[in-house]
What does this fold into?
Amino acid sequence: MASRRRMSLFGGIALICAIAAGGQAAAQQFPPEQINQGATLYASNCASCHGEKMKNPPWAIDLATFPRDSRARFIDAVTYGVRNMPPWGDVIKPDGVAALWAYLVAGEAK
Ligand code: HEC
It folds into this structure.
């Protein structure tokens, strides 16, 4: 099961790498492509627990309230997992985790 998910993610990850290779914008400024990539990753990996578009999470914490100045905490939690939250580091590349952060900060929180 895990390997099938990995396979289907692969195309997406390659695309993200291509887009993100353009470089990271300065703090809290995110290119729309990066936010869109984050939205796609979120929809396929995170929404089942954290709620569609970060709204009304079925049981995990509400990411809409995650502190916007805690980027490092977000990156660590997503990459390595925290308590009941599974680690994503072997499924989602650092570029993808950065895109998820862009989506969290700029995508749904406007
Ligand atoms: C299997 C359900 C599940 C999935 C899927 C999931 N999470 Fe979580 N997540 C949780 C739970 C449960 C917690 C609360 C962990 C705790 O504190 O016990 C959590 C916590 C978090 C936190 C907060 C960590 C902190 O420091 O407070 C972040 C950020 C987060 N998740 C991001 C994500 C992202 C991004 C994804 C998609 C890549 C994702 N989660 C997918 C269940 C999930």
